[in-house]
Write a structure and sequence with these properties.
This protein is about 25% helix and about 20% strand. It is of the alpha/beta class. A hairpin with a 2-residue loop joins strand 2 and strand 3. Bound molecules: aspartic acid. Aspartic acid binds near residues 15 and 96.
């Protein structure tokens, strides 16, 4: 990471951004301000290791259980459009179909030379004992690693190959696993540790977003 490293965060919805209401958990916006306030609670040494980021909130926040391929295409298109302006990307969404998003992005953005990190949380950002802040810290830190040239799920202190990921637990903070692929990295002593021999090689900037006109979006 350099002082110029700048990450684009796409916030699409999901439990991590929800808030308590009389009707239970409901989707809530203003996530940029809420996340920055939460990050302020981190010790200064950890805050200092985070890259700068710009957060874009989806106008219609979705519960990921209602996500469709058109949503995956929207996410991929936003990354493709912003590809040359940012060093890495973080997609924040609900956990129900997070593994599907990661798989779809891995195919759509095949050949990416920049990290694309997908994350979410089992609990809302402002809930007691929430995993949201830790997951976002991991995701932002991973997105600033220039040797990660692929789509990665950051969750529960682990970095997982996106295309091989599946949801394993509905409550445990380690909600995801890759039964057929080794861990790409882990959060150890408040830092990201990558396992270089397991990472994809830099395939160069030659990636092209396929034509998804047939999806009607
Ligand atoms: N139903 C939520 C979603 O997938 C669950 C979660 O965020 O964990 O959007």
């Amino acid at each position: 990471m350099t002082p110029e490293t700048h990450i684009l965060v796409l916030y699409t919805g999901g439990t991590l951004g929800m808030v308590e209401s009389e009707q239970g958990l409901v989707p809530a916006g203003d996530f940029d301000a809420r996340l920055r306030a939460a990050l302020e609670q981190l010790p200064p040494s950890r805050r200092g290791r985070l890259p700068a980021f710009t957060l874009r909130e989806f106008p219609q926040l979705i519960d990921s259980s209602s996500a469709t391929p058109a949503d995956w295409h929207t996410i991929a298109s936003q990354i493709a459009d912003a590809y040359d302006s940012f060093d890495g990307f973080v997609v924040l969404q609900g956990t129900d179909t997070l593994a599907w998003t990661a798989s779809s992005l891995a195919f759509q953005l095949k050949g990416t030379a920049r990290p694309v990190i997908v994350s979410g949380a089992q609990l809302p950002l402002e809930a007691e004992h929430s995993d949201a802040l830790g997951n976002v810290e991991l995701a932002l830190t991973a997105a600033a690693q220039p040797t990660l040239n692929e789509v990665v799920v950051a969750f529960g202190g682990q970095l997982l190959r996106g295309v091989c990921t599946r949801k394993w637990y509905t409550q445990d903070h380690r909600g995801f696993t890759t039964p057929n692929a080794p861990l790409l990295g882990e959060w150890v002593d408040d830092r990201v540790v990558l396992y270089p021999g397991r990472l994809m090689d830099d395939q160069g900037p030659a990636f092209e977003l396929p034509d998804y006109g047939r999806l009607g979006k």
